[in-house]
Structure formats: C-alpha cells, structure tokens
Specification:
With about 900 residues, this protein is of the alpha/beta class. It has 28 helices and 32 strands. The chain has a seven-stranded parallel sheet with strand order 3-4-2-5-6-1-7, with helices on both faces. The protein has a six-stranded parallel sheet with strand order 8-13-12-9-11-10, sandwiched between helices. Strands 16-14-21-19-20 form a five-stranded mixed sheet. α6 packs across α28 and α20 (about 625-640) packs antiparallel against α21. Mean pLDDT is about 90; it is low at about 600-615.
C-alpha cells in the first residue's frame, strides 16, 4: 500500500491533495513552514504525514510525540476529535504490510482538565493537543495548572522527541515568538540532545518574517525557501475558483451602541442569501464578545416578528465545553450547513476564524486585521458555490478598536478598497502581486511585533523550579500571551446546603473539564471581588493544595489557569449566552450543573495528601534494596529503548538502585507503623508500606523523638548527601570531591577539611562510586536528588525548616534544617543492590549540608549549585531534564509493581 492508497483508506477521501502528498514524501523530519489556505485539509494532512512515518513506516528518526498547539480551547476540542478518528482508522488499517499499527493515545491539555499520566510512558508514541497556555507554559518549565514537582518532567518530554505543530499562528500573539525561540534553543543544543525535537508552523496566512529573531536568522531563510504551499500549477478546481463578492459598509460604533444597525445589516444579508439547494446559513463574525452578545440580542428581537424565524445561535469563547460539545452536532458542521432544511444565523467571535468546519451562504464581518479577514472569508462558500460578503467598518478609534489597532484596521480597509472578490484565487493573485511589486504593503497587511521575545538567558533560568526567597516564581505569562485575554476557569456547582452563602464545598468535589468556563482574569475580578475581598452574597472557592481543601476566593487567587468553584445559585452564566457575570433574576433558569463536577470516592484530606504526595504508600511492604533494584532495571530498560548509550543506561540503573537510600533516615522510618493488613516488618530500610501504615499528614516525619519534628523532610536529599558521604569515606581526594582543590587547601586558601566522621568501611557500592568520573558522579547525585522534582538546582529552607526548635538540645544534628535534614544527621547501616545484582552492605553515614553553601566546601569541594551549573553546561537544560524524567518515570512505574519482596518473606505484614 503506497501513501495515496493508505491516506484514502484512513481518511475516507478519494486521496491526498498534492501538497499533502508532497509533505508525506519528505522522509526526513525537520522544521517546516506550511502556508495552506482554509479548507485544504491542513489538519488531516499533517496528522497523516506524522502517522505515516512514525506509526506505519515506524521510522525511529521521526519523533514519538506529536504536540499540536492551538490558540483557543474550542480548537483543541475539535482537533482532538479529528485526531482520535484518524488514529482509530490508522489502527484499524494496520501497517504497510498489514501488521497491526500501534495504538496511540490522544491527550487533551487544557486548563482544568486533570492531566493523564502521559509522562510515565516516554517510549510510547502519543498525540498531545492543547492550548498555547498549557503547552508553552510546560515547555518553559512552569506548567499552568500543574504541580511544581511535575514541571520538570513535562518540560523534559515536551522539549525532546516531539514534533510541535503550531497551528493558526496568526492568533498566537507573543506565543508564536516563544515557539520560535524555543526551537532555536533546541537547535543550539542539538548535539547534546538525546532525541530530536522539531517544529512545524502552520496557517493560511503564515508569513516567514513573523518567525524572524536574532536566534532564528541563520536558519529561517532555508525554511522560507522550502515552505509547503499550494503551487501555481495546483491552484485549480472548484474550491480554488469559488467567487466571493465583497462590499464594505460603514456603521460607526458611536452611532450604533446597541448594535441594532449591525444586526439589521446581518438580518438583511440573511434574507438576500440563497442556499442553492443547500441550507441557508449566515455567519456574523465580530471582534469582541460583548459585541457578539449585543448583536445576538438585537437579532433575537428582529426575528420575534418573523413569520418563519431562522434559528439563531451565539458562539464565543466564554462557554463551557458542556454547551460547546453540542455545537458541532447541532450547527457547526458540514452536515448541518448542507442540510437543505437549515435556516440559521450564527453570531460569533474570532473562535470560528480557524479550525471550524462551517460554511456560510452569506458572511457579515466587522472590519478586522487582514490575516483575520482572510480566515473569515474562508468560512463562506467553504464547500463550493458562492457567497456574498459584507464587511462592516465600525470606524473604530482608540480603545474601540480593541483587541486590534487602528493601523491594522486601516491597512485592511485599504486592501478591501482594491478588491471586488475575496475568493481563494482572487486573494492569491492580490497577495502575489504585492509580493512582487510592493513588499512594504504586504508587511503592512501582515505585521508582527511581539512585545516580549524570550532570550537564551531567560530560558536557561527557567530550568530551576525553586521559588525565590519571597516564595514567588519567574513570571512567564508575558511569553504566552499579552493583553487581557488570559483566563481563569470557572466551574458552577451545587453541594449540600448550596445557596448564596453556601458552606465549604467537600474536599471530594472535583470540577470536570466539561464544566470549566474560560473567563478573562479582569472580568472574573470585576464579577467576584470588591476592595480586594469576595463580594457579599457570592460563594466562590479555590483549591488549597497545602491544606487539601477548598478555601474562599481571595484577592490573590485570580490568575491565569486558576480554577474557581462558584455556587450555581450565584448566577453569572447562561447556557445560550455564555458567561454573563450577572446576578440571577427570578425569571432566569437555573444553571444546569450535571456533568460539571464529580464527587470523588476519596473523602479525607489525609488520603488525598498521601496519595498525591508520595508513591511510598503502596499495598505491598517493600525494602529500599528491592525497590531500588526494580527502579534500576526499569530505568535501564527505558534508557536503552530510547537509544541512550550503555554508559548512560548504566548510570541511570545505578541511580535507580540508590535513589531511596535516604528513606533509612529515622524521620522517614518513624512515620511507618503497623497496617490493617499486617504488622510492620521491624527493620530500618522500608521504602514502601500500605496506606494505613502511615502517620497522618500533620505528624508525618515527626515520630522520631531523637530527630524532632521534620515536617517537609525530603528523603531524596538525604540519598544524595549519602552518596557524597560514602565517596568521601573511601576517597576524599576523588576528582568529584577535594582532588581538584587540594592545592588551594594545602596553600591555606581554603580551610583544611575536617576530620572524617565515619571510619572507612569496605563497600562494593563505594567501589562503584569511586570508578565514576567527576562528571558522572555529579550527574548521579543530581538524578538521585531530583527524582521527586522537589530538590533540584537550588536547595531552599521551607517554612517548616524555619519553625524547627533549633535550640532544643534533645534533637540530633545542628543548626536549622534544610528540607527536613540537619547537619550531623545519621543514616543507619543497610543493604543496597550492587552492580552485579547482589546485596551490598553500606555503612552508617553522617550527613552534612556543606554543599548548600556558596563556594568550596572543606569536606566535599564544589558547591551543589556549581555542580548543577557544570551539568547544564555539558548537557544543556533539555537533555539534563530528559535524563531526570527517565528516572522519575522508572520510579513511578516500579512503584506500581505489586511484586512481593523476597527480603521480607516471613517477616511481619509481608509474611
């Protein structure tokens, strides 16, 4: 089966367009520009090209993950549906020779949707479809609506082994520039990359100059020369030669504040239009949600007196998926538009400019920038025939021109004055003429000047996920979007006793993705807050991840990506008009909430905290050695399957074997008691225990009387410090420790190293550490320390550390704790797995925090921050994070194994 046959089989079309065939014929995956007109099958063409090479031909040079980035949620939902249909068909069709094609999951990444554990399968092909907010924030290591500990693993996997498709880039604002910069930095780091990562930029109005930055200047000309577009000899056929006569009328907004005249123009256009045997559909596209609602209401009044009133629909971005999901079935589809019984007016905003399979027999649109107008023109006579187009110039000035500028609107008006037809062929002739004769005019029609351009320094600084000393993070919102179109997500729900002064929602109440309505941050604040406080009579809540409960909305809680739970009795939403922000009237119907939220089975804060905090709570008791063996084996298998060399795979295996060594610390060990299923094995080296064996969250890591309260204890830091302590025991002058600095110590420039705490003890694990180079040892320590994503580039004391009773002489160690560890803490002797698979004893060790200080340590040499900096210099941030992600995936996968521990047979609850 060749590509054309296969494409016809999986899509149901007669065959691919010429441009789709040419794209798939390119066997090498590389960065690309695609400028394909609306209606020419961009989505299917790109999906099929990736699937052909990665899934059917199974070419390992093509990235495993297809990442489809879109500017709006409504486009995500539609693209997810297309992707799932196509991949189902591909799976059914099988490979080129008839063998089974791999089953590929499609993951939707949108604000408020609970993320699936896709990060646990880095070796499996997958498709991700999401908004630029959700995807670019993750590619910048600050994933919106994701926990801080998850940021690095998503950052790693989205910057490795991916083909990014930036779709409808004309709507992406500064997000387009950020995607260009990220790809430029990936290209810079290509030699250190473990797997390739490429980007395809795509739009009907794409201009290569939009991608120009200092960092892309060297390779952008090649992309421009090799751009995929419809060639002149291919510009034929019924769809290409559709005629769309256009007229411009002037209705100043200042003379039509209630939009009655604009609505009348739309009404008249609908009455004049003819479906030519198909349905009659008039599209009315305006620039702002408030305008759309006003036009819809005015049209509703006009149709009241009609003998046979047309169906009237409103479409904008402030609806819940619960309502949006019905649109494609009821009216936003080819079948609905072509039904000869259809008589409908659809009032919409920019959300229908792209990715919506709808065709109008008449189009009335507000004047908009040229790229937007071209997209809107593509929504008329999309399936052939003809359509009359009316452009309404609202004479917008200043703030009335928002979200656009007067300059953009003036340039578009000038272009329209030179055109009588805006069909595909007419537009192509017009722009080709400008490209040959007046490049300045073309640049005026397609301007792009992002307010913020991500620099390499800013990108590298985002590798560290630690908050600053004030607890704040680097703000990345300026690299995602500008202006006020950054949203919170509102879920209307009801719970026991729900009314305008509802009690606290139960912890098990969870919003669903279908129940989340995007609301611009500034509008949410106007609706819910006054003088920095929740308005009287309103019941609004946000999830408190610290307390694992809902708490009342506060002044600082309205920020992009935040999920806000609102009592449905408080109003603010209408299923026909979307978000209103209005208090309910007695005549208003209740907001339907079925499907908007769920009540999870887990009800207690302790259960939720334990299940989310740590994979140490499993049904099986398991020792540190056995769990380490399983993690090491899984890490090695993953590394080899992903093409890493034997040396890197061996290091990841070693990291897996020792990663939980720090769980032998008394603070961790004392948090495990007997479980309902059986008594606790009496030994200090447990890594896993059943959920019922753990101390409650407020007593976790506080049960050892000699250690004192160690809330916030991080066992992975203890594991990393143990590696340094063991190597120092057997070889203090190792090149990873004091060796490179011995001359400074001997000269007295650096204080001489203190007397060793622990006498050297023969250990096969120590021999493995001793055989590592300084670089490999530093990488091992980093992977071990970072395997929960909470102790990475910088180690900062927490509020729990600061509350520790430092002067209480009853407790071991000295000084303020750091992530629950005090200088001088000890780990007991236990057994770990050696490189040959047998158990190896490791001695008791004293832990020290010297590495957290700036400058050289008299015990260990270079500081922790210096070591991490050297790793970043060697690997680059993307590759270093990828290695980190592999160990973390291996840890989670091994933690889910319910295999019995042979070291515990016949002991306690493991009998």
């Amino acid at each position: 089966m060749d590509y054309a046959q296969w494409f016809a089989t999986v899509t149901g079309y007669d065959g691919p367009h010429d441009w789709q065939r040419r794209l798939a014929a390119e066997s090498e995956c590389e960065d690309r520009l695609l400028r394909i007109p609306t209606g020419m099958g961009k989505t299917e063409g790109v999906l099929a090209a990736w699937a052909w090479h990665r899934l059917v031909r199974q070419d390992p040079a093509w990235p495993r993950r297809l990442v489809w980035c879109l500017p709006m949620r409504v486009l995500v939902e539609q693209t997810v549906d297309v992707a799932r249909r196509l991949l189902d068909a591909i799976s059914a069709a099988g490979g080129v020779t008839g063998e089974a094609a791999p089953v590929v999951r499609v993951h939707a990444l949108m604000g408020g949707l609970e993320a699936e554990p896709w990060h646990l399968e880095p070796e499996r092909p997958a498709v991700f479809v999401g908004t630029q907010d959700m995807l670019l924030s993750r590619a910048l290591n600050r994933g919106y609506a994701a926990g801080r500990a998850r940021w690095p693993i998503e950052y790693a996997l989205l910057n490795h082994d991916c083909l990014w498709v930036m779709d409808e880039v004309q709507l992406m604002d500064v997000g387009l520039a950020t995607s260009v910069q990220l790809q430029a930095f990936r290209r810079e780091d290509a030699r250190a990359a473990i797997r390739p990562c490429h980007t395809w930029w795509m739009s009907a109005t794409l201009q290569a100059d939009w991608l120009h930055t200092v960092d892309s200047a060297a390779w952008l000309p090649t992309l421009r020369d090799r751009a995929v577009r419809i060639r002149p000899e291919e510009q034929t056929g019924a769809l290409w030669n559709v005629e769309k006569p256009v007229v411009t009328v002037r209705i100043p907004a200042t003379e039509d504040k209630d939009c009655a005249r604009l609505a009348r123009a739309a009404w008249d256009a609908h009455l004049r239009s003819s479906g030519d045997g198909q349905g009659r559909v008039t599209l009315v596209i305006v620039n702002r949600v408030e305008t759309a609602i006003a036009v819809h209401d005015a049209l509703d009044r006009l149709r009241t007196g009609a003998a046979e009133p047309p169906d009237l629909r409103l479409v904008h971005g402030r609806f819940r998926p619960l309502e949006r999901r019905t649109w494609s079935r009821e009216f936003l589809s080819r079948a609905a538009c072509e039904d000869p019984r259809t008589d409908r007016i659809i009032v919409a905003t920019q959300v229908v400019e792209a990715g919506v399979d709808v065709s109008g027999t008449a189009l009335v649109t507000e004047l908009a920038p040229w790229p937007s107008l071209v997209q809107r023109f593509g929504r008329a006579a999309r399936y052939g025939g003809t359509a009359a187009i009316t452009v309404v110039d609202r004479d917008a000035r200043g703030k009335h021109a928002l979200p656009y500028s007067e300059v953009e609107l003036s340039a578009a008006a000038r272009a329209l004055s030179e055109l009588a037809d805006v069909g595909p062929a007419a537009l192509e002739r017009f722009e080709a003429s400008l490209e040959r004769n007046d490049r300045a005019r073309l640049e005026e029609l397609y301007p792009y000047e992002p307010l913020h351009v991500l620099t390499r320094r800013e990108s590298d600084e985002l590798f560290d996920t630690s908050p600053d000393l004030a607890g704040a993070d680097l703000d990345i919102s300026r690299f995602i979007r500008t202006g006020e179109e950054r949203d919170v997500l509102v879920c209307w729900a009801q719970w026991d006793g729900g009314d305008g002064a509802a009690p606290t929602p139960p912890a098990r109440l969870e919003p669903t993705g279908d129940g989340l309505c995007p609301v611009p941050v500034h509008l949410a604040r106007q609706w819910l807050l006054a003088d920095g406080r929740l308005k009287s009579g309103l019941s609004a809540w946000v999830w408190d991840y610290t307390g694992d409960s809902w708490r009342r909305l506060g002044a600082d809680d309205c920020y992009p990506g935040q999920v806000i739970l609102v009592d449905a009795a408080c109003g603010g939403y209408d299923v026909r008009r979307g978000f209103t922000g209005a208090r309910p009237r007695r005549i208003d119907p209740a907001i339907p909430v079925a499907g908007a939220f769920s009540l999870a089975a887990t009800d207690t804060a302790a259960d939720r905290a334990q299940s989310r905090e740590d994979l140490s709570a499993r049904d099986q008791w398991k020792t540190i050695a056995t769990h380490g063996r399983e993690v090491g084996a899984e890490a090695r298998r993953l590394a080899l399957e992903l093409g890493l060399d034997d040396e890197s795979a061996a290091l990841l295996e070693l990291a897996g074997r020792v990663h939980d060594w720090g769980k032998a610390h008394p603070a961790f060990n004392s948090s495990i008691g007997d479980a309902p299923s059986g008594r606790r094995p009496q030994r200090p080296d447990l890594a896993k225990a059943p959920p019922g064996a753990w101390a409650p969250p407020d007593r976790l890591y506080c049960g050892d009387p000699s250690s004192g309260p160690r809330r916030g204890f991080r066992h992975e830091l203890a594991s990393a410090l143990a590696l340094f302590g063991l190597l120092r025991q057997v070889d203090p002058d190792h090149e990873a420790l004091l060796g490179p600095h011995r001359a400074l110590i001997d000269a007295g420039v650096v204080e001489a190293d203190p007397v060793a705490d622990d006498a050297p003890v023969a250990s096969r694990l120590a021999d493995e550490l001793r055989a590592l180079s300084a670089h490999r040892f530093n990488l091992l320590a980093y992977l071990v320390c970072s395997h929960h994503g909470k102790a990475r580039g910088n180690w900062h004391a927490t509020e729990h550390d600061q509350a520790f009773p430092v002067h209480d002489g009853r407790f071991t160690g000295s000084g303020q704790p750091l992530l629950g560890l005090r200088d001088g803490d000890t780990l007991p002797p236990i057994s770990l797995v050696a490189g040959d698979g047998t158990l190896a004893d490791v001695p008791a060790l004293t832990l020290h925090l010297d590495l957290a200080a700036i400058g050289l340590s008299a015990r260990f040499g270079a500081s922790w921050s210096e070591r991490v900096h050297s790793l970043l210099e060697a690997h680059g941030p993307f590759a270093l994070a990828f290695l980190e992600a592999l160990l973390r995936a291996a840890d989670v996968r091994a933690s889910r194994l319910e295999t019995p521990d042979p070291l515990l047979l016949g002991e306690g609850g493991a009998a």
